[in-house]
Design a protein that fits this description.
Length: 132
Amino acid sequence: MATPVAAVTLDQALPPNRTIDLLITDAEGFDYVIARGASHLFAEGRIRLYIFEMHGPDFDGHVTWLWGLNYQCFFIMTGGPAGRARQFSCANGKCKGNMEGVKTRGWLNSICVHRQEEMLLTWMLQHAVPVD
């Protein structure tokens, strides 16, 4: 027997005076849907960092939507031999690069930072590597 469960969005759940320092989603292709449930929080810059897993055709749409809400997104890619630090490559906007040249296995982890978070954004831009 199924038990009904109430579903609420992050926009509904978070009080107006609160922010989210780090939001991580891994919803097997439904991260974009979850993020849309926090559209007011994103629009108000109340989510500082957002890490998510991008799948298939939503790659460009999701980062374009976030760019429009004042977020800079980066692909999280492993570089070189196993165990090396992860590198960031630009996903939209100010940095060179887009999905062209990015090799995926059908999914790709990404991190987005609100552009008002100057210290975080500066660090990421300094450590970004161009997409080949």
